[in-house]
Amino acid sequence: MTDQYPSDNPYGQQPAGHTPQYGAPAPTGPDGEPPLWAPWYGISFGGAVRRFFKKYARFDGRASRSEFWWWYLANGIISIVLGILLGVGAATSQMTTASNGYSTVSTMQSPSALYVIVGIIATIWGLAILVPSIALFWRRLHDANLAGPFWFLGFIPFVGGIILIILAILPSKPEGQRFDQPGRG
User: Fold this and answer.
1) Terminal CA-to-CA distance of the chain, rounded, Å?
2) Of 49, 64, 153, 185, which sits 20 to 30 A from 117 (CA to CA)?
């Protein structure tokens, strides 16, 4: 196989602005974006978030590393903000302290309105993104030419999460095209 982009770059990086799909141009729809069944290599942050919600519960097809990691960055930012607001809400709640001489226990007597509201929002957010987050990870595994059920490796105690991170980092493989379903749109 010959190098399509010979250069002085020893790492084989492609020219700026070029996002190949295994040597072939990525298919595009009428809006200039790849169809939902195809991965979008080099997607922007905002594009990844929009595409996450467009492909809400699609377990078929593939997701590029940029689609995957941009979404997890966005979700991490949202989760941190909700966590900070929840902490502020807990800190402003009325607490009672009881001591028996050996230990001191603090309990929330009356939660603040901020704590209750943010708690409800965080719960709704978590439930709303549960299925699409699993679907995104499933598609990311497809792009690395792995079966989606490898996601269940995450349930292995202590090492499951590490295994999933390693699998998410794997590069795209052309054999992963077997998971595409172009007829689905």
Assistant:
1) 33
2) 49
